[in-house]
């Protein structure tokens, strides 16, 4: 009966973590959920496909310390990857903004040059019309 209850909880945990993979959930509190070794292994397997989970609380479960250590290592790796992705996104956005500003500056400069050339053309055409032939 207990094993059956654990399987149900493990199943719910797997489904929940898998479902959250494409979402934005980064934290999960699974304290005091009666997870056993089997539940810890299932959770660890789920973490192989879920890289968004960056904080996980497992206090009060019956998961062996070696499995908890492995789970913690995976969650910490997810957190580090998340930080790298955030930094990458931040720098990419900054670069995009700088490029857009540079493009706008270049467009303004081109427009200024076009106006200057048009003015010189008018001046040359006027001078040529006024010059005796």
Automatic annotation (TrEMBL):
- InterPro entries reported for this sequence: Centro_Cilium_Assembly (IPR052116), LRR_dom_sf (IPR032675)
Keywords for the protein's UniProt record, in alphabetical order? Coiled coil, Cytoplasm, Cytoskeleton
According to UniProt, the name of this protein is Uncharacterized protein
- Name where it's found: Cytoplasm, Cytoskeleton, Microtubule organizing center, Centrosome
Matches recorded under SUPFAM superfamilies: RNI-like
What is the predominant subcellular site recorded for this chain? cytoplasm
For the keyword NAD, the answer is no
Cellular component GO terms held in the UniProt record = centrosome
Organism classification: Eukaryota, Metazoa, Ecdysozoa, Arthropoda, Crustacea
């Amino acid at each position: 009966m207990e094993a059956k209850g654990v399987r149900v909880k493990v199943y719910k945990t797997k489904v929940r973590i898998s479902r959250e993979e494409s979402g934005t959930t980064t934290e999960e509190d699974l304290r005091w959920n009666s997870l056993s070794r089997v539940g810890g292994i299932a959770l660890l397997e789920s973490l192989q496909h879920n890289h968004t989970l960056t904080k996980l609380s497992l206090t009060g479960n019956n998961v062996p310390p070696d499995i908890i250590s492995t789970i913690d290592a995976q969650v910490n790796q997810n957190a580090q990857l998340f930080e790298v992705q955030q930094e990458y996104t931040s720098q990419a956005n900054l670069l995009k903004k700088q490029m857009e500003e540079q493009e706008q500056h270049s467009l303004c400069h081109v427009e200024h040059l076009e106006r200057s050339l048009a003015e010189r053309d008018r001046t040359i055409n006027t001078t040529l019309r006024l010059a005796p032939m």
